[in-house]
Amino acid sequence: MFSIILPLYNKESSIESTILSVLNQTLIDFELIVVDDGSKDQSIHLVRNIKDKRLSIYSKENGGVSSARNLGISKAKFEYICFIDGDDIWESTYLQKMSELISLYPKAGIYGSAWAYRYRDKIVTPNFYIKDRSVEIENYFSHAYKHTLFSSSSVIIRKYVFDKVGLFDERIKMGEDLDMWIRINIQFKAAFLNEVLAYYVMDAANRACTVLCPLDKHLLMYLEKFDCLRKENVALDIYIGHYCLRQGVPYYFHSGCKDHIRCLLMKLSLSNYPFFWRIIYSSQLWRINCWIYTLYKRLR
């Protein structure tokens, strides 16, 4: 029923725990596809030492997480595609409860569960602004602009959906998952289970988000492909606007990036935002926020 795709790059300190959380699922009808993206540490050797008939391993030259996921999708045998990163963890009931969610909402194209940050012994759960235990979502963007509902380790996608929206954009190294969620949710309904079943491990070594990604490899450089759709979908426009404002701060004073960030800001339709947010996101206050962020980074 499930094809689980795990892109692997230099995760020797965490990969065994991640795979164990998958193999120990209460629902056992799945395949686990590990795609080694040219790891330079002992990651792939640790994986090869794990003996389980549901596990298959593919190796490729380093090309980024999107290319690894795309290779995994091409090898998948089952109807539902799951993803998990090599430093995250699933609850043992993840697949079972997500299977039940799929049965409840069979017409959705993408399914997700609540997830939490784990840092050492602390668990921090975001506010997903969903009151019901489970829900089918007609307009994902109207729910997710405050906080994204999906993470790359807590989402399941019908395989045929990729035939409609395409594969992961291999040009994008940061925000490639959000790009995919946008493309899917423009065309398909989403279903969400408001129960934490996946953990984003913040203290894992070699997390990609700890280093500022070059702007030309960031989703911020590729958002113009959604410009026409933003004019027709106010919720999508606000969703992308929030993303630009949050993600643009580190780049605003970065050499060679300011002009592009300014262009993104000029596209924001602040009239669509609540009054308080219009004030907070006005260009003057936003620049002050950028300055405070830069000062903080220098003093830290």
UniProtKB/TrEMBL annotation:
Among PANTHER family, the record links this protein to: GLYCOSYLTRANSFERASE, GLYCOSYLTRANSFERASE 2-LIKE DOMAIN-CONTAINING PROTEIN
Q: Which Pfam families match?
A: Glycos_transf_2
Q: Which domain of life is it from?
A: Bacteria
The alphabetical list of record keywords is:
Transferase
The cross-references to InterPro entries, in alphabetical order and at most eight, read: Glyco_trans_2-like, Glycosyltransf_2, Nucleotide-diphossugar_trans
As recorded in UniProt, coiled-coil segments are: none
Residue ranges of every copy of the Glycosyltransferase 2-like domain listed in the record: 3-165
GO MF terms here are:
transferase activity
The name on file for this protein is Glycosyltransferase
What the entry lists under Gene3D superfamilies is as follows: Spore Coat Polysaccharide Biosynthesis Protein SpsA, Chain A (3.90.550.10)
